[in-house]
Amino acid sequence: MDEADLLYMIVKRFGEVDLHPDKVSNLEMGYIFEELIRRFSELSNETAGEHFTPREVIRLMVNLLFVNDREILTKQGIVRTLYDPASGTGGMLSIAEEYLREFNPDARLEVFGQEVNPESYAICKSDMLIKGQNASNIKFGNSFTNDGLENEKFDYMLSNPPFGVEWKKVEKQVKDEHEKRGFAGRFGAGLPRISDGSFLFLQHMISKMKPANGGSRIGIVFNGSPLFTGGAGSGESEIRKWIVENDMLEAIIAMPEQLFYNTGIFTYIWIVTNRKARARKGKIQLINAIGFYNKMSRSLGNKRNEIGEGHIETITKTYGDFKENEFSKIFDNEDFGYWQITVERPLKDESGSIMKDSKGKLKPDADLRDSERVPLKEDIKTYFKREVLPHVPDAWIDESKTKKGYEINFTKYFYKYKPLRSLAEIRADILALEKETDGLLRKAIE
Fold first, then answer.
1. Which residues form the DNA methylase adenine-specific domain (predicted)?
2. Are residues 104 and 229 in the same domain?
3. I need a labelling partner for 441 at 20 to 30 A (CA). Which of 14, 258, 391, 424 fits?
């Protein structure tokens, strides 16, 4: 801007606007900044979601990470670290630091991040300089192929990676690490489909957890895909299996739609940790917060809803209380697992006789092959006798094809049945519409 002789004029215009705290609150200032970034993103044909997350969402995520950590909220002189592998313009980092200072002015949060977009990286680094943070902790580059903070471990991690973005450009490097290093690398649990790299970010963050005696806590925003995409044996299911069976998934919070500037879809906050409280060991809490929002008087891109302070307090309390109610359900880890069994039926010849192979074993009919999902808590043979054999007595299980899978069908656990309207109500509506239509036709003819 300086080279184009624009910098002075822009700075001069800022001086003409009254932005005193008495006129513009911190929250309003945050929205002004976010709106400027959103408009800049539209002009440069970039996705706004790659740059920042709404302030109220970050405040909620920070609450969920810190709510049970009394040391960081109360202890004098305590120092903790926070990391975001997709830091964008630094919103997660700066708001988390600002929010912590409100609770404990004597605590210090050292922030770290990495960003692949050069403009966002520059804004983030500048913001850290202004706030007195060590700007050299913000690294430039792709977190998957050029980890600028390799071997570093952090107390807390927050991130809102881009939703549903493919990782084809880094496919070779990621696959090499997965195949050659396994769990000694970052992606040992599995690889998601190329079209969505969300689980790569989470595995990358888990690799930066401190050992379990001190441990770390992660808050990450996903769309619905990581909950259920991929059947048993797929990369996504294997990653879910690894996270759940290692007792790292603490909670998932379903958020309202139309919260983000670049998308109106429902989103989910995952809380992942290797230091669960004793009461949470072997448990996963689901919180349904999709109705916790206020309508905005004016839309900002796709953002039409916002989470109010009261909603943040309610969600935080619901999470912290760790009790079941209308909006909170608590499950055993195993409740989300299942066995996928392959059900075979015999192949028959034209005369209807069952065919066998050279060893006298029944030949399966590929056209009649089916599969069933058996909950992990159920015995497979008991389930098979109860649910399958009464309908197809000649069926059997091909045990060589049995796979273990995990998925989290969030809607299933909070579904509320809405009774269908009665025929009398429907008939009354139809008659009323006919009467209204008849009246309109008469007016038109007259």
1. 29-334
2. yes
3. 424
Residue written as token pair 């998957």: 144
| Cβ neighbours of 378 (radius 10 Å) | 14
1 within a domain of the structure (yes/no): no
Q: How far apart are the first and last CA of the chain?
A: 68
169-185 core/surface letters (b: 16 or more CB in 10 A; e: else) = ebeeebeebbeeeeeee
- In this prediction, residue 48 carries a pLDDT of 42
CB 192 within 8 A of CB 200: yes
- Within a domain: 169: yes
Distance CA 167, CA 116 (A): 13
Range of the domain at 365: 336-410
The gap from C-alpha 191 to its chain's centroid, in whole angstroms, comes to 17
Please tell me whether residues 58 and 118 are part of one structural domain: yes
In a domain, 3, yes or no: no
pTM equals 0.85
Number of domains in the chain: 3
Domain boundary among 318, 335, 352: 335
Pairing of β 396-397 and β 337-344: antiparallel
Q: How far apart are CA 186 and CA 244, in angstroms?
A: 17
User: Rounded mean pLDDT of 380-395?
Assistant: 96
User: d(Cα 440, Cα 188) in Å, to the nearest integer?
Assistant: 68
Residues 6+ apart with CB under 8 A from 50: 41, 86, 88, 117, 120, 162
Is 2 among the domain residues?
A: no
What are 111-146's pLDDT values in tens digits? 999 999 898 898 889 888 888 899 999 999 999 999
Q: What pLDDT is attached to residue 287?
A: 98
Of the residues 335, 351, 376, which one is the last residue of a structural domain? 335
CATH number for the domain harbouring residue 329: 3.40.50.150
